[in-house]
Please model this.
Amino acid sequence: MLEPVVIGVITFVLASFVGFEVISKVPPTLHTPLMSGSNAISGITIVGALIATGGGADTLATVLAFIAVATATVNVVGGFLVTDRMLGMFRKPRRPAGEEGGER
Amino acid sequence: MNENLRALLYLLAAVAFIVGLKRLSSPRTARAGNIIGALGMLLAVVVTLIGTGVSWWVVAAGIAAGAAVGTAAALRVKMTAMPQMVALFNGFGGLASALVAGAEYLRSDPAALPIETITSMVLSVVIGAVTFTGSVIAFAKLQEILGGAPLTYRGQRPVNLAVAATIIGLGAWAVATSLALPFWVAGAVALGLGVLIVLPIGGADMPVVITLLNSLSGLAAAATGFVISNSALIIAGALVGASGVILTNLMCRAMNRSLGHVLFGAFGGTVAVAAGAAGSARATSADDVAIALAYSSQVMVVPGYGLAVAQAQHALRALTADLERRGVRVVYGIHPVAGRMPGHMNVLLAEVDVPYDQLLDLEQSNAVMDRTDVVLVVGANDVVNPAARDDRTSPIYGMPIIEVDRARSTVVIKRSLASGFAGIDNPLFYKDGTAMLFADAKKALTDLLGAMALV
Model:
């Protein structure tokens, strides 16, 4: 049976390659939403923060876990929302040049 | 919940992140992709809440506070302020990762922890702490709470290296002896290192700093994933780390500088101005430019951050809309460092309803340059400087540029002939095909629109 850390290293290395492949296909036009969106994804640390709130009466640990939950939530909620806001601005090319106006 | 099922659901969440990022390969699918990523995150959170013995009060309070702040910030932020927003969010992510590792450390008996777990905890705390304070300083610089000029002092590089070495030493000590003191001190010194690294870096290099911090926030999350043996954190962290590395490389290449030079070079303000203007610049008027634009078949706008500083995006859009109504094809040539972060200028133009198929990147812009009748340079300078291509002695030699001097004619909107951010003279201004429209960007574009009415 493999040690968990070895499985973790394997996962990390393979995921890095997937990341390089997928992200190198993102066009420069979308690099800002890519950053805010990937930033929201790095908020996955919220999983660790939630787990850290349980499991014991150490007050300092609970305080740290609370701040971790709050900051990770800012990261997740703010990150996905602001990315959505930005991507909503990228509008489709209009077919006949200058015929119909934008709908907003 | 069955632990195997739980692990598979975390994997599903990670797959949602990958699919979401994959959909960012086109503006058409990107918005749905972001939602898929968000659903993946929701799944990960729900899976975590079921049967892991979380403290519901702490969770509810933390999520309520974080969601309120995050929502308010995301809905209110101006698009021009996006770089500092992303910097701050990066910092929060880093802080959360560091705190999780800290809380796990407090809850465990360090002497009983396997060596790889303590190592992961140290890495998570240190990377998270550097990300946090580095991001806060980057935020303060971009928000102009701190001056944008590089703050340098003698011996800065050895000091930073010594601090980094101290952290490595403390970390090794904490791992080797399971002592709590070096563990916490390493975290505290890492907070200081984040400040020391970012403080000396000038405003022009901030795009690189933000991408680097983005990468670090991912790595901190991955390190936390090792602490709690969670594949979703490891995969997501690796994805974000890779994204940050790709963008950091791209920005460095666009500025023709190495990462080491950005972090330790403190650019700006010290470069000698290349003396001796090569000839005289030709000034033009809004009326003349309006005629040239109206009778073009293709016009390229090359915007720089000066456009956003002058808040002239709407005036620009009004002008280009007028041109399009006359049947002129309008495209936008966007250099990777045109804004304050990768892709920033594209977002600013999308905000004023520029369709995304008109936003060309560096290569695409240069490919259509020969077919372009008039290039309108607004608020950009160094990114169109032909010296980067032609003059081996120029400090920016080798930097990829938008080669506007290859178009049939070029109009540069600029307040004066003063040199740009890097303090380098621009031979473009003195070329035969170039005309200068001396004015503030907003006023010039408004004047142009007015003059168009008479053409």
